[in-house]
Amino acid sequence: MIEVIIIGGGNVARHLAQAILESDGIQLVQIYNRTLQTIEDFKNKTSITDHIKALKKAGIYIICVSDQAIAGISEQLPQNNSLVVHTAGGVDMEILNKHRNMGVFYPLQSFSKDRKINFNEVPIGIEANTPENEALLQQLADGLQNKYFLIDSNQRKKLHIAAVFVNNFVNHLYYIGQDICKKNNLDPAILNPLIQETAQKTVPMNPLDAQTGPARRGDTITVKNHLKKLTGINKEIYKLLSQSIADTYGKKL
Amino acid sequence: MIEVIIIGGGNVARHLAQAILESDGIQLVQIYNRTLQTIEDFKNKTSITDHIKALKKAGIYIICVSDQAIAGISEQLPQNNSLVVHTAGGVDMEILNKHRNMGVFYPLQSFSKDRKINFNEVPIGIEANTPENEALLQQLADGLQNKYFLIDSNQRKKLHIAAVFVNNFVNHLYYIGQDICKKNNLDPAILNPLIQETAQKTVPMNPLDAQTGPARRGDTITVKNHLKKLTGINKEIYKLLSQSIADTYGKKL
Q1: H or E stretch including B4?
Q2: For residue B249, how many other CB atoms are within 10 A of its CB?
Q3: How do residues B159-204 score in pLDDT, each as one tens digit?
């Protein structure tokens, strides 16, 4: 039985805690958060605390806090044989090097508070400082029924950047598209089938082959017409992304 | 029974032709394309031709050709009482004004050649020069079991721009994200659950509320770290989109 303590009360912490509670073979010993209220809904399911010095013992401590808070938490955790990991995409494993056993357990997903996710569909990037610790994290992923992949800190930072492109930036483009609809008295929901198809197409098709549209065709007239109707930063975004598409396919705009 | 002739052999033409063949109450009288070979696989299902002067008669002629070719086709079509429509997002209905009955039948979707789409899930933007023609196009959409919405040429052009943002640009960001993975020896498929979740989240959640990531948080340190690892146009895209997100949420980067 793997015993786990989760440090943090944010979206990753809560989704991970819930997944552990629903798993077989992994025990959620405790959740720590500096404000108890955030994690109060877990109080009938596990021990909760806001005293970091009063943490129980566990095989793995999973630090799920903001990037900037990881070092401080690591400093306050007891130095013993437990495995201490964080869950951040952009932070070196070495930040935990006060601990003999350290690693990273990076769930590659975007978690929102009010959005239920099937946690076991989230791929987990695993890194550890010894083969034994790596094996323990693989066992943790297996226990949660998650797919995992081994990844070092440098690769993980690059993967985090890739995730910013396909998640944060994509979501912002959804916002811009829907906003254009709203400003022209069109129901933004009419974009939904297009949004879903564009995403689903990436599974069987390479995005390089799936690309369509004026910039891909080198259709300068349409690109210019669109630019005339745009202003401000949306115009700059349109120009830059069209240029990038045209460059990718050797087209001139 | 609505009788339809399709002009064109590209992705929209082929998907629409197939949908008509599978519908009740709409008859595909003929498909025209300047090269017969492209539409040869339809020859046992309907009449095909490459002689535009030898077109049969039909209630609706649907011009599904590139934006630049629409005017030329319209010019060559017989002037009679048939309804002539095009399917383009960015072209005025008035381009067809040689014809007494004209309109637009704009399927809001991105069609790829080797990708099967449930055409009846595609929302159709309808415009026509008379209420009678509008009603006929509504009947056509109903016959195909498609949802439709009424939209004038100006709104349609704006919608086309919105579609470029949520489809063409999004797909290009998928390409960049997957490319970063490949260049760092990571399987690009690990981004898939994140891509799908980001898209699916837009249905119940407003993208404005769903936004996460360093720019949204005003996390200047992470943004700077990411920019250090990027070069060329990807770096410019990262900078501009992060700026746009930060502006949207009143954050400073």
Answers
A1: strand B2-7
A2: 12
A3: 999 999 999 999 999 999 999 999 999 999 999 999 999 999 999 9
Instruction: Judge contact between B49 and B36, C-beta under 8 A.
Output: yes
Measured CA distances, A29 to A6, A57, A103, B63 (Å)? 8, 8, 19, 66
CB contact under 8 A, A180 and B159: yes
pLDDT tens by residue, A118-175: 999 999 999 999 999 999 999 999 999 999 999 999 999 999 999 999 999 999 999 9
- CB-closest option in A167, A210, A221 to B198: A167
Q: What percent of chain B has pLDDT over 70?
A: 100
User: CA A89, A91, A96: angle at the middle one, nearest 5?
Assistant: 125
Question: B182 at the A interface (CB within 8 A)?
Answer: no
What is the value of ipTM here, to two decimals?
0.94
Name the CATH architecture for the domain at A156-248: Orthogonal Bundle (1.10)
A216 lies within 8 A of chain B by CB: yes
**A149–B187 C-beta distance less than 8 A:** yes
Q: Domain boundaries in chain A?
A: 2-151, 156-248
The residue type of A143 is G
Which residue bears the tokens 């025209």?
B32
Give the number of A-B residue pairs with CB atoms closer than 8 Å: 318
Please tell me which of the candidates A162, A173, A199 has its beta carbon nearest to residue B180. Answer: A162
Q: Which pTM does this prediction carry?
A: 0.94
Q: Could you say which of B110, B169, B190 has the minimum Cβ distance to residue A123?
A: B190
Residue partners of B54: CB distance under 8 A and separation at least 6: none
Domain A2-151: what homologous superfamily? NAD(P)-binding Rossmann-like Domain (3.40.50.720)
